[in-house]
Amino acid sequence: MAWEVVGGGDKGGILVRSGQATSSDQLSERLSTGARVEELELVGERLHYKLVSGAGPAEGWVSLSLKDKRLLQRVGEKPKADVSEGDLREGDYYVTLGILFKKLGTDPEKASITKLKRSVGSVVHTTGKVWRGSGGGYWVELDISSGDSGAGEKPGYVMIDASGFGTPGPCLQKASKEDGPILLLKAKPKPGSEVKAWDDGSLDKEFLVLSKTTIAEVRVILGMLFKIAKSESITVLSKDGGQLAPETNVGEAGFRSGDDCAFEHAEGKSMRLVVMSPLEEGVKLTDLDIKNDWTVGQVRKLLCSITGLKESSMIMARGKMGERVGEDAQLNLSHLVADCGYKEGDEIGFIYMGDTEGDLKAFLAKQ
Questions:
Q1: Alpha carbons 91 and 128: distance in angstroms, whole number
Q2: Which range of residues forms the domain containing residue 142?
Q3: Which of 170, 340, 347, 360 has its CA 20 to 30 A from that of 107?
């Protein structure tokens, strides 16, 4: 049985003793956070281990938890929050990326910064007092009134979100009983998907969501975790391998905590759409050379940049120019062109609320 050290991030690792008893001699070196060990013997909450990877004594005895804080976790075991939903306090946050940045001490202006490792979904207790640094980053004060805050027992501030730390998004997410329990999903890129993890490490990433989180929001999270600039190019798959619609939420899709979240990502392929003139029936206005992972909004921006038409006056719509369209013809600007059913050579239409002739005058004069 393999175990991973998930505690002791703010202390350089966890204590190791020479024997099973907690009164036995303490070894001079700690077992580093993130280390993996092989179980030799497990007696209650005491683990006799052999080091597999990471830094620390080659063999020794460690405790699985301390003051209800998990120190080790079985490899492959679904992480659990350190407190249940019912135990959440005002000011609690969930860990989102597996790392924390902590400013030690009570004065965040002068504090040094240390990096901690924590399981995704674990809880950090804070007072709710937020400090904004000169660089624009947001930090929140730890609540150590009951001992371990989830980021150590020493006072300090932990980063919610800030640039310059190499993180793709917030390290913390506000916890609330009203949102219900969190779900921890395992990101699983399909074979052939050319993706890289945000930390250049393993592709085995976990992320937290709520039942009400939409697939569109899941795509944004996956985009951050795997350096994908255009989250719309991500296809999240259902348990039976089908494509999930962006507006579907996690609960409706049937996901449960610990499930794999399979997804595909492919760079867009070139395609050409045709735009017909709104002034002369049967006359082509222009061709649009795009990629099939573009959004309708991007297509509108390109069309307006070519023709001089104004984005604020244009509604992208299904149908052909000159034909009467229904009330449901309007296209959602955030949807992918491919998801709207468009293929190479198709005509894409629009409704224009401005001065069509006047706004097209300069463009038509060049034709």
A1: 5
A2: 85-174
A3: 170
Q: Residue 361: which pLDDT band, with cuts at 50, 70 and 90?
A: very high
Which of the four pLDDT bands, split at 50, 70 and 90, describes residue 302?
Answer: very high
Instruction: Give a yes or no: residue 37 inside a domain.
Output: yes
Token output for 40: 């030799």
Phi/psi region, residue 294 (left: phi>0; alpha: psi -120 to 50; beta: rest), is beta
Tell me which residue has tokens 């709104």: 278
Residue 311: φ, ψ to 5°: -60, -40
83: exposed, middle or buried (Cβ count in 10 Å: 0-12, 13-18, 19+): middle
Cβ proximity of 11 and 30 under 8 Å: yes
What is the pLDDT, as a whole number, of residue 285? 94
Query: What tens digit of pLDDT does each residue of 219-274 get?
Result: 999 999 998 877 888 999 998 889 999 999 999 999 988 899 999 987 677 899 99
Contacts for 137-145: CB closer than 8 Å, 24+ residues apart: 137/161, 137/162, 137/163, 137/164, 137/165, 138/162, 139/103, 139/108, 140/91, 140/93, 140/172, 142/102, 143/89, 143/91
CATH code of the domain covering residue 188? 3.10.20.90
Q: Which of 174, 194, 221 is the last residue of a domain?
A: 174
Whether residue 58 is found in the same domain as residue 137: no
- Per cent of the chain over pLDDT 90 is 56
pLDDT-derived band of residue 79, with 50, 70 and 90 as boundaries?
low
Establish if 305 belongs to a structural domain.
yes
Same domain assignment for residues 106 and 170: yes
For residue 291, the number of C-alpha atoms closer than 13 Å in the C-beta half-sphere is: 9
Inside any domain, residue 79: no
